C-alpha cells in the first residue's frame, strides 16, 4: 500500500507535469530546430512568435465565447487555434519578406541573422504587450479535470491523490498528433523531401531544381503552426503572460540543442530531457522516499537537490554540459 | 534703509506664503503591480480624509490640501523612487501618504524622503525591518509591523489545533520578513514548520513549488504572498494537485479577489489582516457609504494616514515637514479628546483652540516605538466561499 502511495505521489507531482511540460517544450523546440535546419539560423524570436500566436488565439477565443460558441467539454481555444495559426503565418511571412529575405539573398553569416532575429523578437514582444497587455490572461474553459485528487482518493482509498487536468491530456494528445503529421510530411511528401534536401545541401538542392522560395515559405508556415500550437497548449495548461513566453526561450533552445539542432527527433527527446531534469532536480523527494523506504531509513530532510528557484539553472547546466562534451547533441544534429 | 526694506518685503512674502497655502500631499501607492486590486480604495480612503479637511475649511490659515498621485509599482524600487522624487521636486509635496509595499517604501524613504526631509506615513508597509530603518523621525505607519502579525498567525493556528504547517512566501522584503517572524513565533509556541520555501511572483506555473511543499507535508499551507500574483498561483496549483485543501492567509492574500478566485474550494481556510472592531471601523463604513469598499484591506489605514499628516500640520501650524513631524505622535496618542472618522472638522477646531486630541480614527491608531501602529487584527475564516470574521485580536 505504501509503495502504491509512493507511485501515486510521484506520478501526480513529477511524471504528469513533466510529460505535459516536456510535450510543450518539444513542440517549441521542433519550431526552433526547423528554422535552424532549413533557414540556418537560431531564431530568437521564437518565444515571442509563440506569444503572438497565443494572443491571437486568445482574442479569437473571447470572440467565440462572446458569440456563445464553445467546444463543450474541450477548451474553446481549440476552435480558435486555426485563426491563431493563420495570423501567425501572415506575421512570420511578412517578417521574412521584410527582414530575413534580404539577409538570405546577401548570404549573410548566421550570426548576423541571429542578431536580426533578436531585433525581430523585441518588435514582436512590443506588439504583443501593446495589444493584450503585460498581464496574466486565463482563457481555459470547458472541463478542467479528467480525474480530481479528491475523486481519486475516494476511489482508491489511498492517502495520496492523483489529479489529471484535461489540459495535460490535451497537450500530450495534440503533441503526438502534431509530431506524427510533421514526420509524415517530412518523410513521405515531395515538398517534405525537398525541404530535407535543401537542409542537407543547399547548392545541390538548387541544382536539382528545388525552388528555394517555396521551401522557405513552407518552412515558415510549419514554424508558425508549431509555435502557435506550443504557445496555446502552454497557455491553456498554465497561463498566458507575455514575459513567461520570452523566458521559455531558454528551455526551448536547451531542448533543441541537447537533442541536436536541425534534428526533429532530437528536438522531441531534448524537450523531455530538459523537462524531466528540471522537475527531478527540483523535486523534494521526502514523501516518496518515506513511503517506499522502511521506517529506519526514512529521511528527515527534504531530499531536494536544488530549490525550485533554480529551475532555469538546470537547463543552463545541461546546455553547457552538452555543448562541452557533445556539441552536435544527442541525435547528431548540426554543430552549433 | 535698503536692507530694512528688503527684510520687510521678505517677511511680508513669507507671511503671505504661510497664509492660505495650497498644500500638496503625495499619494504613492502601487496602482499597477501585485496589489493593484487593493490600491484604488486605499487612495480613495486617503482622498476622503483630504476632502473632509478641505470641506471644513479649518486647516491653519484657511489652507487647502490637494492630492497628487503616483505609482509605486509595489515591486520596482527604482520606479518608485523616481516617482517620489518627481512629486517632491516638481510638484512640491509636503508629505507622503504611502508607500504601500515594504520594499518600495524602504527605497522611497532612504532615497527620496529622508534626503529631502519629507514626512511619510505608510498605511500598509509591514516589514519588521522598517522599524529600525534610518528615518530622522520622518517615517510612520498606521499598519503594524509583521513581527506582530507573525505572532498573531502563530496564535490563530495554535488555537485551531494545527501543529504542523508548510510555509511559502513571496521572495521580497514583505514575504521574507513575515515568514521569519511567523516561523519564530510558531516554533516558540511548539509548532513545526515542515518547509519554508520562497516563490517568485509572475510565473505561469507553480506546480514545481507546490510539489516540494506537498512532499514536505503539513496540516495546512501558509501562503505569505500576494493575491494578485504568485500567492493565488500557489493556491491554484495546490488545489489542482490535491496537495493541500486548507490554507492560512496573512494580509497580502486577503481580498475579494481571493473569494472570486477560489470561493468554496478553500472553505475552512483561515487568515488575518490588520483590522479593528473599534467604533471607528463602523463609523468609517458609514462615512464611506457605497462610494468605495471601506472594508478592503488597508483602506481605513490609508484614511488614518492622510488624516494624521493633516492633523499634525494643524498642530504645528505649518506644512513644513521638519515642524510637523514632531506632532504626529502627539495627535495620534493619548492624552486628549478622542477623534473618530468623520470628526476631522472637530479635531481641527480643537487643535486650533489648543486642546489636545487623541486620534483614534478608523483603525484605533496607537503609535508605538518608532512610530508604528500597535496593531489589532481581524481573524477571518472561509465559510461558504465568503470571508467571515471570527473575531478581532
UniProtKB/TrEMBL annotation, chain A:
Membrane-spanning parts: 6-39, 51-71, 77-99, 111-132, 168-186, 215-236, 305-325
Locations listed in the record: Cell membrane
GO biological process terms held by the UniProt record: D-alanine transmembrane transport; L-alanine transport; L-isoleucine import across plasma membrane
Record's keyword annotation contains GTP-binding: no
This protein's record includes keyword Cell inner membrane: yes
Major place of residence: membrane
Bilayer topology term: Multi-pass membrane protein
GO molecular function (one): L-valine transmembrane transporter activity
InterPro entries: ABC_transp_permease, BCAA_transport_permease
One GO cellular component term: plasma membrane
Coiled-coil ranges (or none): none
Pfam families, per database record: BPD_transp_2
Keywords: Amino-acid transport, Cell inner membrane, Cell membrane, Membrane, Transmembrane, Transmembrane helix, Transport
Family: Belongs to the binding-protein-dependent transport system permease family. LivHM subfamily.
Name this protein carries in UniProt: Branched-chain amino acid ABC transporter permease
Organism (species): Pseudooceanicola nanhaiensis
UniProtKB/TrEMBL annotation, chain B:
One Pfam family linked to the record: Peripla_BP_6
Gene Ontology BP, a term: amino acid transport
Record carries keyword Flavoprotein: no
Keywords attached to this entry: Amino-acid transport, Signal, Transport
Keyword Signal on entry: yes
Stretches assigned to the Leucine-binding protein domain: 23-327
Signal peptide per UniProt: 1-20
Top-level taxon of the source organism: Bacteria
Protein family per UniProt: Belongs to the leucine-binding protein family.
Protein name as annotated: Branched-chain amino acid ABC transporter substrate-binding protein
Originating organism: Pseudooceanicola nanhaiensis
Amino acid at each position: 500500500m505504501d509503495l502504491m502511495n509512493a507511485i501515486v505521489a510521484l506520478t501526480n507531482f513529477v511524471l504528469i507535469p513533466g510529460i505535459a511540460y516536456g510535450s510543450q517544450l518539444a513542440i517549441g523546440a521542433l519550431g526552433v530546430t526547423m528554422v535552424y535546419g532549413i533557414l540556418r539560423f537560431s531564431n530568437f524570436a521564437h518565444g515571442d512568435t509563440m506569444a503572438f500566436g497565443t494572443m491571437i488565439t486568445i482574442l479569437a477565443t473571447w470572440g467565440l465565447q462572446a458569440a456563445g460558441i464553445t467546444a463543450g467539454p474541450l477548451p474553446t481555444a481549440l476552435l480558435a487555434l486555426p485563426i491563431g495559426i493563420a495570423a501567425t503565418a501572415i506575421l512570420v511571412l511578412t517578417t521574412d519578406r521584410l527582414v530575413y529575405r534580404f539577409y538570405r539573398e546577401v548570404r549573410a553569416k548566421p550570426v548576423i541573422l541571429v542578431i536580426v532575429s533578436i531585433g525581430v523578437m523585441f518588435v514582436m514582444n512590443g506588439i504583443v504587450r501593446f495589444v493584450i497587455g503585460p498581464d496574466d490572461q486565463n482563457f481555459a474553459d470547458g472541463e478542467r479535470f479528467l480525474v480530481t485528487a479528491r475523486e481519486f482518493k475516494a476511489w482508491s482509498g489511498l492517502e495520496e491523490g492523483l489529479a489529471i487536468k484535461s489540459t495535460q491530456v490535451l497537450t500530450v494528445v495534440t503533441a503526438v498528433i502534431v509530431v506524427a503529421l510533421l514526420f509524415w510530411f517530412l518523410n513521405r511528401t515531395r515538398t517534405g523531401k525537398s525541404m530535407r534536401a535543401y537542409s542537407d545541401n543547399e547548392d545541390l538542392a538548387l541544382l536539382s531544381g528545388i525552388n528555394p522560395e517555396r521551401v522557405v515559405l513552407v518552412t515558415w508556415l510549419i514554424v508558425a503552426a508549431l509555435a502557435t500550437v506550443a504557445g496555446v497548449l502552454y497557455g491553456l495548461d498554465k497561463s498566458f503572460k507575455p514575459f513567461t513566453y520570452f523566458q521559455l526561450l531558454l528551455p526551448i533552445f536547451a531542448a533543441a540543442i541537447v537533442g541536436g539542432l536541425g534534428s526533429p527527433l532530437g528536438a522531441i527527446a531534448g524537450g523531455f530531457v530538459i523537462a524531466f531534469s528540471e522537475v527531478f532536480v527540483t523535486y523534494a523527494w521526502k514523501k516518496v522516499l518515506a513511503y517506499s523506504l522502511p521506517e529506519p531509513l526514512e529521511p528527515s530532510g527534504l531530499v531536494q537537490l536544488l530549490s525550485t528557484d533554480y529551475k532555469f539553472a538546470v537547463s543552463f547546466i545541461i546546455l553547457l554540459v552538452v555543448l562541452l562534451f557533445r556539441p552536435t547533441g544527442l541525435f547528431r544534429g548540426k554543430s552549433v | 534703509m535698503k536692507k530694512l526694506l528688503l527684510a520687510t518685503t521678505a517677511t511680508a512674502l513669507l507671511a503671505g506664503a504661510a497664509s492660505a497655502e495650497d498644500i500638496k500631499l503625495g499619494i504613492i501607492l502601487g496602482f499597477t503591480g501585485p496589489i493593484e486590486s487593493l490600491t484604488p480604495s486605499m487612495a480613495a480612503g486617503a482622498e476622503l480624509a483630504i476632502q473632509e479637511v478641505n470641506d471644513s475649511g479649518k486647516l491653519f490659515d484657511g489652507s487647502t490640501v490637494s492630492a497628487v498621485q503616483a505609482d509605486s509599482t509595489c515591486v520596482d524600487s527604482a520606479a518608485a523612487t523616481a516617482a517620489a522624487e518627481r512629486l517632491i521636486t516638481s510638484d512640491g509635496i509636503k508629505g507622503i501618504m504611502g508607500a504601500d509595499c515594504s520594499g518600495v517604501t524602504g527605497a522611497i524613504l532612504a532615497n527620496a524622503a529622508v534626503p529631502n526631509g519629507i514626512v511619510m506615513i505608510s498605511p500598509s508597509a509591514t516589514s519588521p525591518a522598517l522599524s529600525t530603518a534610518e528615518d530622522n523621525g520622518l517615517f510612520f505607519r498606521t499598519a503594524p509591523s509583521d513581527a506582530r502579525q507573525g505572532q498573531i498567525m502563530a496564535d490563530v493556528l495554535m488555537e485551531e489545533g494545527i501543529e504542523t504547517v508548510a510555509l511559502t512566501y513571496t521572495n521580497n522584503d514583505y514575504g521574507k520578513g513575515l515568514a521569519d517572524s511567523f516561523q519564530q513565533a510558531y516554533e516558540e509556541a511548539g509548532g513545526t514548520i515542515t518547509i519554508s520555501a520562497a516563490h517568485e511572483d509572475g510565473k505561469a506555473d507553480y506546480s514545481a513549488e507546490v510539489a516540494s511543499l506537498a512532499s514536505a507535508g503539513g496540516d495546512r499551507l501558509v501562503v505569505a504572498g500576494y493575491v494578485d500574483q504568485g500567492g493565488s498561483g500557489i493556491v491554484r496549483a495546490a488545489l489542482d494537485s490535491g496537495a493541500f485543501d486548507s490554507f492560512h492567509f496573512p494580509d497580502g492574500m486577503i481580498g475579494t479577489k481571493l473569494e472570486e478566485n477560489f470561493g468554496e474550494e478553500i472553505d475552512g481556510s483561515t487568515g488575518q489582516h490588520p483590522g479593528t472592531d473599534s467604533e471607528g471601523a463602523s463609523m468609517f463604513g458609514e462615512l464611506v457609504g457605497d462610494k468605495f469598499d471601506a472594508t478592503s484591506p488597508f483602506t481605513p489605514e490609508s484614511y488614518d494616514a492622510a488624516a494624521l499628516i493633516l492633523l499634525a500640520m494643524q498642530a504645528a501650524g505649518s506644512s513644513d515637514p521638519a515642524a510637523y513631524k514632531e506632532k504626529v505622535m502627539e495627535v495620534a496618542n493619548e492624552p486628549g479628546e478622542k477623534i473618530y472618522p468623520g470628526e476631522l472638522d472637530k479635531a481641527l477646531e480643537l487643535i486650533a483652540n489648543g486642546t489636545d486630541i487623541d486620534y483614534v480614527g478608523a483603525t484605533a491608531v496607537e503609535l508605538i516605538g518608532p512610530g508604528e501602529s500597535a496593531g489589532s487584527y481581524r481573524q477571518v475564516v472561509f465559510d461558504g466561499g465568503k470571508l467571515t470574521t471570527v473575531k478581532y485580536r
